[in-house]
Amino acid sequence: MNTEAPGNVHLIGGEMLLWSDMSNVGGTPDWRGAALELFRRMLPPSGRVLLVGPHPQMLVDEVAAHAPSAAVLLRSYPDACALGERHPGLAIFCGRLEVFAADEPYDLVLALDGLLRTHSAEAPAAAWIESLDALAALVAPGGRLVLGVRNDLGVDRFIEARPADRDGADDQWAPHGFDPSYPGGPAALDAGLESAGLTLQLRYAAYPCRQAPRSLLARDALTSGLPDALTFSLSSRGGDRMLAADPLRLTRLVFRHGLGEELAPLWLAVAARPPLGSEGPGTGGAGELPLGLIEEGPALYELTRAGLKQLPDGAERPIPVGRVVEEILVEACAREDVKTVRELLKDLAIWLEQGGDAAAATDSLVYDGERFAAIGPMAAPSTPPEPRVVLCRILRRFAVRLLAAGHHHPWPWPLEADQLTLTLCGMADRPCDSGDLDRARKLDAELGQPAELAEQAPTYRDLLSVRDRLADQLTAALARVARLETKLSYRERELVRARAKIRKTQRKATAYSRTLGYRLSRRLSRPRRVARKVFRLLSG
Predict the structure, then answer these.
(1) For 148, which of 42, 112, 174, 209 could close a Cys bridge (C-beta 3.0–4.6 Å)?
(2) Which residues, 6 or more positions from 470, have their beta carbon under 8 angstroms from its beta carbon?
(3) Of the candidates 91, 134, 88, the residue with the CA atom closest to the CA atom of residue 111
(4) Is residue 70 within 8 Å of residue 49, measured between CB atoms?
């Protein structure tokens, strides 16, 4: 191994020689388009930029390419050497934040990963407020600090089944959660920034999770009441996460009850140091900062007062109002309200036949009671398919998601997704067959949205709910069986009594038929019967 550091790497003390933060991919937030857009808007035209702590390579490359003068502070020696070789023009400082003494303060300081990875195992970790004071001292008058802070009581903490106090990574040598100075909410974060001599300009709530923030929402946007079409996508299941609850359901409750800021997985605070001789905020104010930034796949949108604007130069469009169709259907299925399901599916089929979006799905459509609207623009198929096939694809995708999440529905359970799809198509008065299902799968593959049961697994709470529901059904069935067995036993006893009574009657009849009087009456009545028959033959 090459132990010689590049010329742009400077050791300042407290460096960790055999440790790499970048090897622990799960612990570093994967900032992408939203963070890059925010950085571009705050980049000073002529100033110094400092990155504190590990950051995604994409963000570091952006800083190195566009910042007039940039530097990076890392605690990991291997990471510092690798970054120094990748960007020879960057000044790399390796060591602890508390011992870093800059020659001049910086106009923009980015610490999107927070302060927990600025400590070293070579010395006791400083309190969060002490690290914040050391970081704030690096901000020049009129400069800005962008600080990421993970929320210990974020909504993702309630979703994750693993213990929240230790994520299981090797850098968790000091247990988290025992520092009284760590901010426990937005108000505590604001107070910490103020005590460090900084003025808060804007604070963003990052969603859907702390590992992969894809959306930044300012407080004004959260308090104004975001439409369902926007908040529905602000949840994430995570491929390798152990989930205790359905993220979609829990995140929707957070926004519905106005707790989007308090229970955000991560906060991103933009603070400024007042210029010399001024008590106001730093240069640039909060007016230039976006109200919100939202990523949807490769597209990036800016949230405005009037709606969404696709960046960099897309047209602004209003956010459609109404409830998400999937939520309406799931709620109706939970209540076993077959009438609502049938009426909604019929309206959906009519909308598709009248030229509705062929790439739509129940999780990307909203319904206001009169009309449907797509949440966002979607790629249309190359050739327009038949409305029946489009409806079959939409309902199959809903059936897959319904069964994968373990939701209750009024049809026999468990039921295969294809069978449930055919049932739903029949309820919409648009019967489909296996050929339509095959064409629906091909359309899903063409749109790049394949829906398979393997892509999602029921969460622990869903499994417990299903188990409890099945236990209740089993208890009711056993009680019914017990009642039927009691009734059957009673009927069997009645049958035994009836058979005994019949046998007794038969014995009496046999004994009576052997008596002299019965035999004489039979013989005396025989000529009369013969005469009656002859008379009938002659008269008829």
Answers:
(1) 112
(2) none
(3) 134
(4) yes
Neighbours of 119 (CB within 10 A): 21
* DSSP, res 13: E
**49: part of which helix (H) or strand (E)?**
strand 48-52
Instruction: Mark out the alpha helices in 241-315 (DSSP H runs).
Output: 247-256
Residue 300 DSSP SS3: strand
Q: How far apart are CA 405 and CA 236, in angstroms?
A: 13
DSSP H or E segment with residue 95: strand 91-95
How many other CB atoms are found less than 10 A from the CB of residue 505? 10
List, in sequence order, the alpha helices (H) in 48-196. Answer: 57-66, 77-86, 128-136, 155-159, 186-195
Residue by residue, what is the 3-state secondary structure of 301-364?
EEECCCCEEECCCCCEECCCCCEEHHHHHHHHHHCCCHHHHHHHHHHHHHHHHCCCCCCCCHHH
Q: Which long-range contacts (CB under 8 A, 24 or more apart) does 62-69 make?
A: 62/36, 63/39, 63/110, 64/89, 64/90, 66/40, 67/43, 67/108, 68/44
The strand pairing partners of 70, in sequence order, are 49
What is this structure's pTM?
0.78
What's the token pair of residue 283? 């240069």
> For 270-281, how does the pLDDT look when each residue is reduced to its tens digit (9 = 90+)?
999 998 766 544
Task: Give the three-state DSSP class for 76.
Answer: strand
Neighbours of 18 (CB within 10 A): 7
Q: Give the list of residues 6+ apart from residue 412 with CB closer than 8 angstroms, or none.
A: none
Q: Which residue is it, tokens 């229970």?
A: 263
Angle 73-261-33 from CA coordinates, rounded to 5°: 50
- What does residue 459 show for φ and ψ, rounded to 5 degrees? -80, 170
Q: What is the pLDDT of residue 378?
A: 67
Tens-digit pLDDT profile for residues 343-378 = 999 999 999 888 888 888 888 888 988 889 888 766
What SS3 state is found at 267? strand
Radius of gyration of the chain (CA): 37
What tokens does 125 get? 């970790």
Q: Where are the alpha helices (DSSP H) in 95-236?
A: 128-136, 155-159, 186-195, 219-223, 228-231
